Amino acid sequence: MRNSFNTAGFSEVVHEIRNDPAEAAFLYTAEAQSSPYRGLSARIGPALFGTVKSARRFSVELRDVSDAPGADGPLPMHLALTGIASCALTTLVGGGSAQSVVFESADMDIAWDGGAVASRIDVGGVPDDATVAELVDQVERFSPNYTTLIRPVPVALRHGPGAAPASAGTAEGAPAAGRPAACQVRWISGTQLTSAPLGPEPGEELRVDAPKQLTGVDWGPNPQEYLLMGLAADVASHLGRLARELTGRAVTWRVAVRGTEDVGGLLQADPSAVVQLQDMECAVAEPAGLSGTELEKVVVAAWAASEVRYLIEAAPAVRLTSHRVESCPV
Amino acid sequence: MAKESRTAIGFEEGRNDGAKWFGDLTRSRFAGPVTPHHRVLSREVSPETLAVHAGTYEDPVTGAVGTPVFQTSTFLLDDASYAAFSDGTSRDVPIYTRYGNPSQWSVQEKIAALEGSRSALVTSSGMSATASTIYALTNAGSHIVSAYDVYGGTYNLLREDMPSAGREVTFVDPCDLDAVRAAIRPETQLLFFETLTNPLLKAPSVRGLAKIAKEANALLVVDNTFLTPVNMRPLELGADVVVHSATKYLAGHSDLTAGAVVGRRKFLDRIWAQALRFGGTLEPLSAFLLERGMKTLPLRVRAQNANAAEVARFLAGHERIAAVHHPELGGPRYAGLERADYGGFGGMVSFEVRGGDEAALEFMKKLRIPYVATSLGGVESLVSMPSNTSHSSLTARQRSRIGINPGLVRFSVGIENVRDLVRDLDEALGAPAEEDKR
Lengths: 330, 438
What we know:
The structure holds 2 protein chains of 2 kinds.
Chain A: H1 7-19, E1 25-35, E2 39-44, E3 47-49, E4 52-54, E5 59-62, H2 76-98, E6 105-112, E7 116-124, H3 129-142, H4 144-150, E8 155-159, E9 181-189, E10 192-197, E11 206-208, H5 223-247, E12 253-262, H6 263-267, E13 278-284, H7 292-305, H8 307-314, E14 317-325
Parallel strand pairs in A: 7-14, 8-13
Antiparallel strand pairs in A: 1-2, 1-3, 1-12, 2-5, 3-4, 6-7, 6-9, 9-10, 10-11, 12-13
Helix pairs in contact in A: 2-3, 2-4, 2-5, 5-7
Chain B: H1 47-53, H2 79-87, H3 102-115, E1 119-123, H4 126-137, E2 143-147, H5 152-161, E3 168-172, H6 177-183, E4 188-194, H7 206-215, E5 219-223, H8 228-231, E6 241-245, E7 259-263, H9 265-278, H10 284-294, H11 297-316, E8 321-325, E9 348-353, H12 356-366, E10 371-372, E11 382-384, H13 396-402, E12 408-412, H14 418-429, H15 434-437
Parallel strand pairs in B: 2-3, 2-4, 4-5, 5-6, 10-11
Antiparallel strand pairs in B: 1-7, 6-7, 8-9, 9-12, 11-12
Helix pairs in contact in B: 1-3, 3-10, 4-9, 11-14
Protein name (chain A): OsmC family protein
């Protein structure tokens, strides 16, 4: 398999979708919890790939956005950036594998400074700059998470029992800049990647992979799941902080996020298919002990404060550069 | 022989060196693997004809009428082999027998044709097929629903291996669709049931189970060992994957162990990859024996259907028998049976001898025609007790809960003359003991 990437498996998915477009509908789910006792965590839920379910058990202990610098664990924004960069690199290596490019390395540094995203892809083993440019162009057009970053994608918000989704874009303007975050995502093999936080703040390396239904080996959550976990955790984190600030109450918040992908766009099995994530929805479970008015106030404020939500909904300024790494002499 | 003809149909068509993106890739496997030398017949052809002819390797060098035994562990490497490694398509080129062998491909095509599918896999045993299927189609963190009275080997796999592999299992009564539905969770990925259960011959609604699985976006895998595709084709009723202990009726002669899996190739390729990692290869001579045995499958199974029904009727009228389990006898347990889905009910009959396990053991010793041995589905009749064989790992309470009562005997009826079998049973049972009459 080229680059340990199962091109035959992806080719079969392309033709399966052409036979039955329903096979292109992918659904991802994630949940996050902000607890005054157990801290902030996020986990993935079952995913649906056309007609096949993939239920896996992955969770991440996170650092709350209100924690002091030096606290342990990645920030929610680290998860979101990991999701964007790992999707970009998987798209790059996958696309290169389809055209028989043999990679030595593929890395992406990605940073959020509170208002814009800067990223840089370094590719090793690719024979010339033109090929690198072509591969990066394909990333910008076909990577589901990268296109979610550069295009406005509405996210519906639900809270309270049986609540209808609030209209998209309820939060006006950019949130106040929080803490900058950056990570380096490194392609390892096939659909496996790692993500390490950059900068002085500590954080464990995160593993990224595809589920085995999509030719991965279940080594970790996949890129879309990281992006959704980042959104759920960011909103949950702000809910916990703002509930304390606005109501004086420390309660447990649970946030569920879902999003769909038409994989016909990534694979170009259907060139008319939308590439970026769609039908994004964030559901906040009503915690015990808050009145309806308090709940509304906290949820609206947390939604407005979420930088990951802004990243998805608002298409912030994005800068992507690329560089071809010369082969190391033996 | 032209070199390309040893690769599976579709292998060369799927190669595209000029691709620039996924959408340009041309591989679209939906069937096989079979080469141009394997006989592929329409699935509309009758089972008797498919059993004889489907999958036969028509050797272009010798003109052999039967499939040659490709008794080799490895094959010459060539450009196709290297391309297969590079593209991730090594199931479609004979490279190494653990990966695939034309002898296996022949019998796979025959089983696929009989089950009405386009792809199949043969393995070294039924449990190899079952384990590979369950591992391949579930992930750590998922949930499985199965039956508490599923075959003992399957039960042990689900109970003893799945928790440590990160899969949770809920066991229910397979005939209680409400219980099955209630067991479903968001992370339920697989429902695993038998089309006719061992040893009590419960006949769950495959259509009903398929509906529940579909609603849950889960896959329905059924073990069709007892019924065989002659009596039921579960894929047509909504099952996603069918597994077999091919050791039993498919092979039919108690001379090999083998397993089989049938379904869409998107699932079969994953199960194949799991089976080759487990090392559950069916070796070529057993593949040959299995293919040869299957040529008479419809004839054997129809004879066994009739014999078992006759035996069940005889036993139901005998004073020394407390209960008989067989769908042909009807009764409340089979009230909802969708008879149109069955071509017959196979050769199994289970019954309770009055007097408990001791009396049942004495009865079995007196039998002259059936062998007292475990296993089933061969041309010869076999008789055994679940309590001290297939279900011996269960506690007495667990056996009682699922209906395995003292004195339960499992009779695998062969193709002998049924009058001889009934006479033998009658003599072995003898006159009812005085205490049994009270």
